[in-house]
Amino acid sequence: MGGVHGVCYGMLGDNLPSRADLVQLYNSNNINAMRIYSPDHAALDALPRQRHRPHPRRRRRRRRPQPRQQRLRCRRLGAGQRATLPRGRHHPVRLRRQRGAPRRRRGDPPPGHAERARRARVGRPRRHQGVSTAVRMDVFANTFPPSSGACAQVYMADVARYLASTGAPLLSNVYPYFAYRDNLRDISLNYATFRPGTAVRDAGNGLVYTNIFDAMVDAIYAALEKAGAPSVGVVVSETGWPSAGGFAANVENARAHNQGVIDHVRRGTPKRPGVLETYRHACQIRRL
């Protein structure tokens, strides 16, 4: 798998193999990390000890909890993870679904999930387990050139500073496919799929980009710096390219992108060299 740390395990679909068979598939292909989308007991029980590092996600609740409910939920978060996670290295638990970019006015109180996360950290089960959130690229603005990246809404700066205070990374879903599909005039297929032939210089930082994946990640780093959280790391919690079912969605492009990710992320980005923790989406064949 090269620099890619793992593959997302989507559990929704038809005719899916058993949890145990999927874990065996990961092991047989030397995939050492798995991102899961809920604390699924069957999947967690099938994981070998000290091998996989799952990203469990708490399901979103529709009702706003009252103080007593809040306390009970935080207890469930801690106790539930202690009961379900196998011993080994684990990464942050997500409190919310993937965030888009809702409106929030300046001066509004910080988002409630940050306070829930702060309370949930009390008595958290493992040293390597924290609390974070996953975001889409639309929570960032001015992403071209990458040095101009900024938070699109005030709340995102609050989230960034909270993560800086806890030492947790920001989980970000980075899909060059959507950037290419939605901007054919300015983004070439080669640039989107790690193929050679394109070099873009960022006049703001002097760095040269040969693929849009790097440019998108460095725009996130620039936004975190502008939010006052330069120490926050980025984990690419999802990336991928569809092999069917959409514009430019075919096996050749999917292979070029996915192999490019595998070969590339061990080097990091022009702004942040070093291994970039990345999770390919997904183990099952799905349409984006």
UniProtKB/TrEMBL annotation:
Keywords: Glycosidase, Hydrolase. Residues 42-130 are annotated as: Disordered. Gene3D superfamilies: Glycosidases. Signal peptide: none annotated. InterPro entries: GH (IPR017853), Glyco_hydro_17 (IPR000490), Glyco_hydro_17_plant (IPR044965). The keyword Hydrolase applies. GO terms for molecular function: hydrolase activity, hydrolyzing O-glycosyl compounds. GO terms for biological process: carbohydrate metabolic process. The keyword Hydrolase applies. Residues 49-76, 87-106, 116-129 have a biased composition (Basic residues). It comes from the Eukaryota. Belongs to the glycosyl hydrolase 17 family. This is Glucan endo-1,3-beta-glucosidase GV-like. It comes from Panicum miliaceum.
